[in-house]
Amino acid sequence: MANITLRVNGRSHTVNVEPSTPLLYILRNDLGLQGPRFGCGLGQCGACTVIIKGAAVRSCVTPTSSVKGEVTTLEGLAKDGKLHPLQQAWIEEQVPQCGFCQNGQIMTAKALLDKNPHPTDEQIREGMSRTLCRCMTYYRIQAAIKRVAGGNV
Amino acid sequence: MNIEKILLENSASPSRREFLKTSGMLVVGFSAAAVAGPFAPSASAQAARGLYPDPDFHQLDSWIVIHQDNTATFFVGKTDCGQGTGTAFRQMMSDELDIAFKDTTCVMGTTDITVDQGGSGGSDAIQVDGWPMRRVAAEARRVLLDMASQRFGVPVAGLAVSNAVITVNADPSKRVTYGELIGGKRFNVALTGANIDATTGLAKVKPVQELKMVGQSPQRYDIPPKVDGSAKWAADVKLPGMVHARNVKPPFAGAKLMSIDESSVRNLPGFVKVVSKGNYVAVVCEREEQAIAAARQLKCNWQKPATAPFPASADLFTYMRGATPKSSQTPNTLGNVDTAFSGAAKIVEAEYEIPFQGHTAISPAHALADPSNGQMTIYSNDMKSYGMRNGVATFLGMPREQVRVIWMEGPQGYGRTAADDAGFEAAYIAKELGRPVRMQWTRAEEQGWDTKGPAFTFKIRGALDAQGNMTALDYGARSCDYNHLGYNEPDTVLIAQLMGQRRAMPANGSSAFPNDMYAIPNRRTLLEVVGLPLIWETPIRTGNLRDPNGPQSTFAAESFIDEMAAAAKADPVEFRMRMLTANNADDNGFRRARSIAVLKAAAEKFGWQPRPAPNPARRNGDILTGRGVAYTYRNQTVVAEIAEVEVNRKTGRVWVKRLVCAHDCGLVINPEGLRRTIEGGMLHSISRALYEEVAFDTEKVLSVDWASHPSLTHMDTPAQIDIVMVNGDPNPNRPDLPHYGAGETSCKPMIAAVANAIFDATGVRLRRVPFRKERVLAALNAANV
Fold this sequence. Notes:
Shape of chain A: globular
CATH superfamily of the largest domain in chain B: Aldehyde oxidase/xanthine dehydrogenase, molybdopterin binding domain
Number of strands of chain A: 5
Number of helices of chain A: 5
Strand content of chain B: 15-25%
Helix content of chain B: 25-40%
CATH topology of the largest domain in chain A: Ubiquitin-like (UB roll)
Number of domains of chain B: 3
Structural class of chain A: alpha+beta
CATH architecture of the largest domain in chain B: 2-Layer Sandwich
CATH class of the largest domain in chain A: Alpha Beta
Radius of gyration of chain A: 15 Å
Largest interface: A-B, 60 and 61 residues
Largest sheet of chain B: 7 strands, mixed
CATH class of the largest domain in chain B: Alpha Beta
Helix content of chain A: 25-40%
Distance between the termini of chain A: 46 Å
Oligomer: heterodimer
Shape of chain B: globular
Strand order of the largest sheet of chain B: 9-10-7-19-16-17-18
CATH superfamily of the largest domain in chain A: Beta-grasp domain
CATH architecture of the largest domain in chain A: Roll
């Protein structure tokens, strides 16, 4: 066990945990964040995605001790009480079915658009390809991303 | 109002009355307070009913509560699996009650505050339960109008009602709100009806023409919290003193637990206990990551079974063809099939295969059970929460009045959570420990041990006459479905099996016949079910997967119809249309007329140019393009789908580039919600068509993650999806137009549409699902395409 200090959504937290513990469990069980979700624990599905230094990171396979830099979770996307344009687009497009994977979809899309604000359809497909949805809402996810990329939110 | 939040905030206190008090909801209807009226139980009878009694479906107060602020809460005994049924219920009920949609909320699925309407399943929420919900809302409106009539001394006919405000026609200054009439008070109105589905009051529901919110597309209320991270899911519940449990599953199917070496984990940090009975093993730790480590490290000695539990998946279809059926119905026969074949101008024969396919939900099973104060509360995403409550009570030997399930949202498994294992496991361990227990399955456990859709083999023959008309269909379907898992049964849920429970009569399982309205004068249908050698404690256990058996049987049947059309050198749409229009007989739901309407609508939307398959102009470099159609119905919902595919001749990859769906489910409640449900259903079946297969050797399941059991991805998303809402009723404006179910029908013909499109593109007929690129490439190479 060791004390580890994490900066998450603009706030600092110190937790006393086994350093190799995947970040996901710290976020969910110690910091009370529920945006990142457990889907596979293998880094395959993307439900646990958070953003660290601009990159979409799979928190279920990220040792907490390896985290360098601020962590942003789904809860941290809204600014000054206003939803992020992607979250707004998700509502307007009525994207989710069950919604369990959508944390990963939104966070992956944010990292994608932050790097490339106007991706082509193919770049959206490729950028999102490793983030799975078992309700198969892909068509609406891509439509919502295009809304934001096209400035229509 | 977020019921889950309220429940959570009060979860430490198991007193229902306190929850209701704190919630601020008008809940006298559910409290144990003294109540007047013919159905009010005496105080002693109330006490005997326990802490979590069943809401009385014969009381209007069990269904609808009007608040003092002139808003309403509807209590619905269904669960919303992400298709927006909660929003749809609010639309239907606010129309019947005459209250603004925005002033309503909906509480679903929690067993002690909603009537047991069965939870989800069978796409029946709107089709079946929509009617009692509409009737009770209409009854509440009637009662409120009567109250206003008495207050003003004006007959009901002299009153008008809009947005929960009643006014006197002759003097509009006289007005009263619903909240003023009943807010804070019980209706105390008795309902009738022999069962919950038949619940009714005296009021009649409105004609379709008077429904205002029905047919509009208000946004789903559950979506904003799902995208801003505020939603509380069953996976998120945390209670003081809770511990984390993980299962340790047998490494081989049918293995027997010989011993557990508890010393292998006893000194791990946070270790609490190893819980074991029979072949069931779980380990409990204070923290989640500790439980994960302990489950990996626990040393168990397992003995392999003497005989192989099942053949390897590569040998599955050979095994199924050679197996003796567990059940075999007498063939269902129409006309004289043998005579038709002996007089045929052309006979076509084909066999089809579809493997076991998993539910493979995006998150593995999970639940939290709280045994505080001698009760048992389970926080679960079980789509049939009422069944879980009953099942857990029996399994634990507790009176059901001491058990409740708080339904919360979770990952959709499309049938997986109808037999949810984690809730039973969490409750068992919680009772053992006397502490709240959170059970979480792993990905490998879920992929390995979740319920599977049955594998099928089909053998089909068809006859054409000299004019190219189909004169006979001889259809044989064989499923591997013996001991099909029921819903939350205390003696068949996996933990019960592993603990050694055996049912004397395993469930028969089922096979499936094709659903079509084709006029084929001579038909024979043979349905058979076979079983694997091991039927208990097996990871290959079958359950209801979205539209149970429908995608399988329709894949075979509608592929075969396409093969007949090709043999007749006929256009696939025209060939089907000819058989739909060949007679005038129809059924009560006008399925024949509506079948014609959807097939026509789909072809029009697609821009279908008649010609036989395969496509004569299909090649553009390495890309082969084709289109395929398939049609069917499910209960009273009829659907025709067209897929346009691109097949890469070099890699074998299939991309479904464009989809058209013409869909008739009668009265549409929320068109945009329906559209998304249809899209998801079609893509789910494309995933089954292109990727999904449970692989196993003779000991265990091998497809245990997303690499070994692949699923559709963003790369596979069609470029264009067109959905046409069809109302093919011969009297489309009838005031009693029914609302049929729509959760599953769109899944049903999709695999066939893809197979037919691949044939159109390549001239190669694929009769074995899934159409992974290696299999497609091998078929193309074998045919020199």
